[in-house]
């Protein structure tokens, strides 16, 4: 099974990887595997709504991220990099373990782009969750969705020896926009601010910041998405080749 939002990203053609540049901005990818009960149900308020019709048709209505810091040792053996969990209409939880794989691996189910600034008005998660900073000046829904992610659950980094994670102190899954794939958001170790790695592609997920419209945050270069069609084709082929709907 795939993240519901992944299908959204693929179908809207937003995934774009060909622009990998400096290592500290490295893209990365996760493979997903359906696993047994990890025994770490997030609180109800931590779940985002599923938006992909194909998943809704199968009664998958909500999903949340589970960082490894919330997993028991026993569950960590099954899900060493954390998991996503889906809730069905009858409140059954279905766990999807995630594991880091090379971005060009055929097992790369969820691919995240280079780092981009996130909520530039804030330097820490706490400034946002405390209400001191609103990421968007006028979109209260976006602000609430960001707070949901940062409250549930921000987690210390664990695999700190690998780029790009070596520069990050803690992280959380955020779905700031229900129509997009989503993003992992990170607090930088050096205290200079927050960054996101989004599974939407670099130009499509910049958060509105006060008075700033910046579509070149990632590279400052011309659109790096020339090969997006080729990649999108690969994504669709992977989706079609994966009989995940038969596993449910
Ligand atoms: C989990 O594993 C870590 C490292 O191996 C160990 O230090 C810790 O005591 C274990 N926790 C439990 C509850 O067994
Ligand atoms: C609840 O939903 C899951 C997944 O759709 C299904 O496997 C399970 O049998 C259902 N349980 C009940 C009690 O209906
Ligand atoms: C953030 O937004 C809320 C709701 O619109 C508002 O009440 C609050 O004053 C804002 N906070 C700041 C620091 O602007």
Automatic annotation (TrEMBL):
Disordered: annotated segments: 205-224
Key word Cell cycle present: no
Presence of keyword Transferase: yes
Record protein name field: Thiamine monophosphate synthase
EC numbers: 2.5.1.3
Signal peptide range in chain numbering: 1-22
This protein's UniProt keywords: Signal, Transferase
Compositionally biased spans, kind Polar residues: 212-224
A molecular function GO annotation: thiamine-phosphate diphosphorylase activity
Species, as recorded: Skeletonema marinoi
Lineage of source species: Eukaryota, Sar, Stramenopiles, Ochrophyta, Bacillariophyta
